[in-house]
Design brief:
The structure is a single chain. The protein is of the alpha/beta class. The protein has three domains: about 55 residues; about 180 residues, D-Maltodextrin-Binding Protein, domain 2 (3-Layer(aba) Sandwich); about 210 residues, 3-Layer(aba) Sandwich (D-Maltodextrin-Binding Protein, domain 2), CATH 3.40.190.10. The chain is about 45% helix and about 10% strand. The chain is built from 19 helices and nine strands. Strands 1, 2, 3, 4, 5, 6, 7, 8 and 9 form a nine-stranded mixed β-sheet that branches. Strand 1, helix 3 and strand 2 form a beta-alpha-beta unit.
Length: about 475
Amino acid sequence: MKLKKVMAITCAAAMAAASLAGCSGGGNETTAAATSAETTAAAAGEEAAAEETEAAESEAPAESSLEGTLKVAAFDGGYGTEMWTEVTQKFMENNPGVTIELTAEKNLEEVISPLMKAGEYPDIVYLATGRELALPETLLKDNAIADITDVLSMTVPGEDVTVGEKIVPGFTDTLVTNPYNDGKTYLAPMFYSPCGLWYDAGLFESKGWELPETWDDMWALGDTAKADGISLFTYPVAGYFDAFMFGLLTEIGGADFYNQAMTYADGIWETDEARQAFDLIAKLADYTEPTTVGNANSDNFKKNQQLVLDDKAIFMPNGNWIIGEMADAPRAEGFKWGFMPLPAMEEGGDRYAFTFFEQMWIPEAAENKDLAKAFLAYMYSDEAAAIFAKSGAIQPIEGASEFITNEDSKLIYSIYDNGAKASMGGFATTEAVEGVSMKDTLFFTIDSIMTGDKTVDEWQAAVEEVSDQLRAAMK
C-alpha cells in the first residue's frame, strides 16, 4: 500500500512540472498558476485517498483460514460459564469458518467420561488436576493427553508474540504442565491464584489484632480468639490442604526438598522436615472449628467457608474463586476479604503462598487437534484475557494485572509484591497403581487427624509407603 502512495505523489509532481514547462515559453502566467494549483490539489486528493485506503486495509482483520467444528468442554466452577460463552463466541467471530460446540457443566467428568469411553472425545478440555475424580491424572497415566509443546511457539492470534513469550516464566516448567518430566508440555496453564489464608480484615480491625507473621504468632492468636469464642482455623474440604502442604513443605525445607517430595525420593517423608509439617497440621486440630470435619464434603463445604464470613473462624486455605463463590453469601458487619501467605516458621523466615493454576488440555484421541491448538493459543490473547478477567479468572500472562478491576482481586495478586514467595508444581505422574493414591493418603487423611481417628505416626508411615510404591511406577 505504501508503494501506491509514493507513486501517486511522484506522478502528481511530474504532472505539475510538465504544466510549468509547457507555459514557460511566454504563455499566460495566470493560466499556468491556476493549472499548477489544480494539479497540486489533485495530488493532495490522491495522497489523502491513498492514506484512507491504507488505513482501512490496516484496520481490517486478516481473513482467517481456520474452519471446522470444535468441541470445547469446560468445567463450570467458581468463575461461572458466561466467560466461556463469550470467549467462544468471540473466537467464532474472529474465525467465521469455525463452529464451536460448548459443553459447560459442574459435573464435567461425569458428563464427558462416558462419551469418551464410547469414543466421542471433546477436542479441548478445561478441567484441572487435583479433583476427586482425577480425570486428567488418569488420562496422563494412560498417555491419553496430547503433547502441546508446539503451541508455545505459535503466535498469539492478533498479536506479535508467541504463546511461550506471553506466559509468565515458570508456569510451563512444572511437573503439572510437564508431568512426565521429559521437557514436553501436555497441560496448558490457565487461570492462576495464589493460595494462602483468607480471613476477615474487618474482624482484625474491630478487635485490634495484628496479623500473625510466624506460626508462634498464629498459635498465640488462636488462644486469644478462643477466649472470644472464635476458632482460629477451618477448611472447605481436606483436598484444599494441597496448596497448604506444598507451601509448607517449601517453607520448611526449601525448593530442593519440595521437589524431592514431588518426585517420591526414597525416605523423604521420614525426614525431620516432613515430620515438622505433619506435626504442624496436627496441631491445627486443636484450633479448628468443631463443625468443620462434618461439613468437609462436596455437599456442605460452603458451610465451612461461611464460618469465616460469619467470624466464627479466622483463617481458611482457599483460592481466588472464593470471592465469586461466596459473592451472595451473608457476612458479618464490616466484613472485608483479607489474604495472606503462610506464617513463617521463625521470625524473619520466608513466607510462601503456593500458586495454584488450572489447566487446559487436548485429548490424544481428539478429532480436531490443530483447531484445538489454535483455540488454545487464543486463550492467551489480551482479548481473551480481558473476557476472563471480568469473571475473576486471571491468566498467567505478561500484563495480566491491567485487566484486574476488582479491588479484592488486586489484593490477591499483589501478595508476591509484598514479600511472599511462590511455590509451584505438584507430584510427578506415575503409572496407575491399584489402590494407591497420594492425594487420598496425604490430604484426605487430614480429616482423620482432625478427629483423632488416626495418629501422626500412622499418617506419616502411610504417606512414605505410598511414596515408595509410586516411585517405582514413576514415568
